[in-house]
Amino acid sequence: MASAKFTRRFREASDEAPKEPDKERAIVVVIDDDPRMRSALEFTLRRDYDVRLYASAQEGIAAMTEMVSLVILDIRMPGIDGLTAYLKIKALFPKVPIIFYTAFQDILEKQDLLSTHKAFGYFDKNGDVSGLIAAVEKAVQHHSLVSSMASAQRLVRGIMPPDAS
C-alpha cells in the first residue's frame, strides 16, 4: 500500500522531536483528505515548522491567514478539489507558495499546474521524500523573502515624499 510506504519513508527522513519554540516558526498548512498522509507530513515537518492540518479544502481555505508561509495541497479530494482550492487561496493570498502533493500522477496536469497556474511544486506521494522536503524549505525561504521585500516597500512608501514630477 502506498501510504504505508510513504509513512515509512517519512519516519526514516525525520526521526526527531519538534524544536523548542525559541523563535517564530513558519506556518505550513497541509490540506489532504487522507489522515495518514496528513500525519506523515506533520511528523516530518514539525521539527522545523508550525504544521497545521486540514482534512478538506473548505477547512484549509477558512483557516488561511497572511501568516501562512506555505500550503501543501492534495489535488483529488471530495468536495472542493485541489485545483479549485488553489485558485481560491491564490485569490486571497497571491504570494503564498503552494505545493501540490498527489497520489495520481498526470504529466499534462503537472505541466499545467506548474506553468499555467504557477504552482511552486508538484510531487507524487509515492515519490522522493527528500525532494519534497527540499521544496518545502525553498518555498518557505521564498515566502520569507517576498514578505520582507513587501514590508520594505511599504516602509519606504511611508517615509518617502510623493514624487513631485
UniProtKB/TrEMBL annotation:
It comes from the Bacteria. The keyword Phosphoprotein applies. GO terms for biological process: phosphorelay signal transduction system. Residues 1-21 are annotated as: Disordered. PROSITE patterns: RESPONSE_REGULATORY. Keywords: Phosphoprotein. Residues 27-140 form the Response regulatory domain. This is Sorangium cellulosum 'So ce 56' complete genome. The lineage of its organism: Bacteria, Pseudomonadati, Myxococcota, Polyangia, Polyangiales.
